[in-house]
Amino acid sequence: MPDVSAFIDSLKQLGADGQQAIGGASSLETLEQARIEFLGDARGRLKAAQKELGAVPREGKPQAGREFNAVKTQLEHLHAERRAALEAASRPASMQRDLTLPARARWVGAKHPVTLVIEEICAIFRELGFTVAQGPEAETDWYNFLALNFPADHPAMDAHDTLYLEGGGLLRTHTSPVQVRTLQRVAPPVRVLIPGTVYRRDCFDPSHAPAFAQIEGLAVDDDVSFADLKATLTHFAKRFFGSSRTRFRPSFFPFTEPSAEMDIECRLCGGAGCSACKGTGWMEILGSGMVHPNVLRAAGIDAERYTGWAFGMGPARIAMQRYKLPDIRLLYDSDVRFLEQIAR
Ligand code: PHE
């Protein structure tokens, strides 16, 4: 009959030996040998100890039993751990990674904020009965200026800093020439929206782009008035921005009379004044006015019968307001880290 304390000592020794053999196994083969020696079913040392445990006197059994179980679980856990580690190390290098990690997300690209804004603007005007039209970016002097009531060789053309093309023609400085092209093609009632790219030479400085987006709007019908213009553009601003305040300021364009620019209260500063609105609290988002009768006539429309209104807005400025961007250059740099924040 074994002495209880001597038995417990021998269990402790067994545990220590097992830890050394299993924990120190440097290959799956030596680990398997250690497993057979200590945890093996047939001739394992724990198995032998279990037999001796059966012969321990009654009083000593609980204590001896606890010690036995402790050593057994400890060695079993150590074995499982060591085995996992050795297996992982024996995998080919390509499989060393944790395959349960989520895959690295790849950015697949998205619409540019200015594109998103253009689409949204078109959708709002579509509800009001406007269709979308387009025109060429390479224009003639006549469509870009003369048909729009710019006097020939008038300094107003300089204000547009036109990019002229070799062999005649120019890059349109605004989307307004498409007003004339549209009216030549379709008879009133006309309600169109014309998104497009325009080009200006004055814009080769850090805060301007030589090519930028514009959206032209044109409505020509019987009895169209300035009240329609104001109501429609105010409705647009409410729809697009929610509760932003708007204001109209008198302005001048050769192709509209009267003319007005519309501002919205700067959403970056809530009207208090900031760098985006140059301290004014307001941001100009469009030019507009009643289509000049000379423009209607140039397009072959009966200017005695029909009236119209038009506007040209800057989607980049509108995007600045929508996404609260302090600097318009963010929209031209195409920095993916920035674009990613706005992409939907
Ligand atoms: N074409 C003008 C511009 O580029 C904007 C405008 C369009 C103004 C239509 C009035 C009517 O500044």
Task: Walk me through the structure.
The chain has 2 domains: 4-97; 113-342, 2-Layer Sandwich (BirA Bifunctional Protein, domain 2), CATH 3.30.930. It is 41% helix and 19% strand. The protein is built from 12 helices and 10 strands. It has helices spanning 4-23, 28-39, 45-54, 61-90, 113-127, 141-144, 177-185, 226-241, 293-298, 315-322, 330-333, 336-342; strands at 131-132, 138-139, 163-164, 170-171, 190-199, 211-221, 246-253, 256-265, 282-291, 307-313. It starts with a helix and ends with a helix. The mean pLDDT is 90. Residues 174, 176, 216, 253, 256, 287-289, 310-312 line the site of phenylalanine.
How is the biggest beta sheet arranged?
Answer: 7 strands, mixed
Low-pLDDT stretches are: none
Bound molecules: phenylalanine
Q: What average pLDDT do the residues reach?
A: 90
Topology as a string of helices (H) and strands (E) = HHHHHEEHEEHEEHEEEHEHHH
- Which class of secondary structure composition applies to the elements? alpha+beta
End-to-end separation in angstroms reads 79 Å
Task: Determine the oligomeric state from the structure.
Answer: single chain
